[in-house]
Amino acid sequence: MSASLFDLLHESHEIQRQLCRRLTAARASTAQREQVFLQLKVELEAHAAAEERFLYVPLLMTDPGLSSSRHALSEHHQIEELCEELSVSDKQGEAWLDTAKRLGEKVRHHLKEEERKFFKVAGRILDVDKKDMLGRRYQKDLVRMRKKYAADYQRVDVSSAGEVVAAPR
What we know:
By secondary structure, the chain is mainly alpha-helical. The chain has one domain. Helices cover 78% and strands 4% of the residues. The protein is built from five helices and two strands. It has helices at residues 5-23, 30-60, 63-86, 94-125, 128-153, and strands spanning 156-158, 164-166. A two-stranded antiparallel sheet has the order 1-2. Helix 1 (5-23) runs antiparallel to helix 2 (30-60) and helix 2 (30-60) runs antiparallel to helix 3 (63-86). The radius of gyration is 16 Å and the shape is globular. InterPro entries: Hemerythrin-like. It comes from Methylibium petroleiphilum (strain ATCC BAA-1232 / LMG 22953 / PM1).
């Protein structure tokens, strides 16, 4: 039996949490921060694209899912804007680290809210067959989007297991 839609989403959420922790680690060098930021950015972008397509859109089409989906989309946009603020060449300053911490806080808030509230709403709206079908499509699209965004940044790659990793030198 394949993993459920919510299990697959949670797997990506855990990767995001781990990368957020690594991004703001006190001992990280600028080069390490750059690498971890690119891995996080790819994971966030790929996850958001696949999640919006295969969870939010189906729920947007229902009255009970409309408000929750809109809220989640708004938070994705806020996360995207913080990533843009961090996409500068100088990652040494205190201001950059403060923004990275805000990004981590926003990501953790969004994931917690999604897992505690949004998944429950979605679980009531989507039947088992729909969740299975959306889970398969989400997983396929997540890996495809990871590869797309990794190619855009060139300093990260996607492993054979579909995970975002540092590109070989």
